[in-house]
Amino acid sequence: MSTGSQLSLLPHPEKTTEIPLKPEGQIIVGDTLEELRKFPDETFQCCVTSPPYWGLRDYGIPGQIGAEMKLEDYVTKLVQVFHEVKRTLKSDSTFWLNIGDGYTSGGRTWRDSDKKNKGRGMDYRAPTPDGLKPKDLIGVPWRVAFALQADGWYLRSEVIWYKPNAQPESVKDRPTRAHEHVFLFSKNEQYFYDHEAVREKGDNGSPRNLRSVWQVNTEPYAEAHFATFPRALILPCLVAGSKQDSTVLDPFFGSGTVGLVSGALGRRFVGIELNPEYAQLARKRLGW
User: Fold this and answer.
1) What is the pTM of this model?
2) Lower CB count within 10 Å: N or C terminus of the chain?
3) C-alpha–C-alpha distance, residues 242 and 245, integer Å
4) pLDDT on residue 5
5) What is the maximum alpha-carbon separation in the chain?
6) Is residue 38 part of a domain?
7) What is the domain count for the chain?
């Protein structure tokens, strides 16, 4: 993968290599941008994904997104990937993006691992982005969301994922973070969204429209040294945003949780994963 400063939003090739979809789903190992370009227009009904967070994890593989030294390069890469996602989504599709935030490194160039989270260890730390100060909250989710909005996506909702069992932090000068963002985007102004299927119980016991704060515990997977999607977080996205027998895309497949939930709901899926070890974890979870 080239550096972010060299990236541009190039139009997709006029001719694509069509990949037949297996009935139950498919896991593709490779660079997500390159693999997405092999799919024809309007292949998928829904996309649910969580890309690597910027500067928070070292996934240990060349070309990984999230290891850029400049924040703007990270944002540019994600815009380019999701530009291609938009092409491969059907006209009435939705795109659900979970993305976390972080703080500037304050000049630190590495970070030690800890017993509770082996994935925290990093031998690099990006410098403080231009315009920010040491200890600043970066605002990564909204920077990405606004960049995608500028690229043509309809930004329809901001969901707050509240984590009751969030990891403790040793900080003493700010609250402990216990939430992340899930953004709902659509490809067009009108799109498929089954609001009846995700109605929730109100305080008086009667059904009401789904609210924008979701209380979902984190769900660790013992064999993974990285954060995994909780199934309960993915469920409302797919119930509201995908049709029975449709195909769901996750371009950052990780350990395959989107595939698990898709299969449980009777949806096909395509997962793209750069790291062969993570793809193997996903196959094992899916019973392949």
Assistant:
1) 0.86
2) C
3) 9
4) 26
5) 56
6) no
7) 1
Average pLDDT over residues 195-224: 90
Instruction: Return the H-helix or E-strand segment holding 249.
Output: strand 247-250
Between 57-71, 120-134, 186-200, 253-267, the lowest mean confidence (pLDDT) is in 120-134
Burial class (CB in 10 A: 0-12, 13-18, 19+), 22: exposed
CATH of residue 125? 3.40.50.150
Contacts 24+ apart (CB under 8 A), 220-228: 221/255, 221/281, 221/285, 223/255, 223/281, 223/284, 224/254, 224/255, 224/278, 224/281, 225/118, 225/119, 226/57, 226/59, 226/119, 226/254, 226/255, 226/278, 227/57, 227/119, 228/254, 228/255, 228/257
Measured between its terminal Cα atoms, the distance across the chain in Å is 29
For residue 28, what is the enclosing H or E element? Answer: strand 26-29
Note down the domain range covering 191: 44-242
CB 253 within 8 A of CB 272: yes
249 assigned to some structural domain? no
Model pLDDT for residues 162-200, shown as the tens digit of each residue? 999 998 999 999 999 999 999 999 999 999 999 999 999
162 with 213: CB under 8 angstroms? Answer: yes
Residue 280, in any domain of the structure: no
d(CA 180, CA 99) in angstroms, rounded, equals 7
Q: Is residue 150 part of a domain?
A: yes
d(CA 269, CA 263): 8
- In the chain, DSSP finds a helix count (H) and a strand count (E) of 6, 10
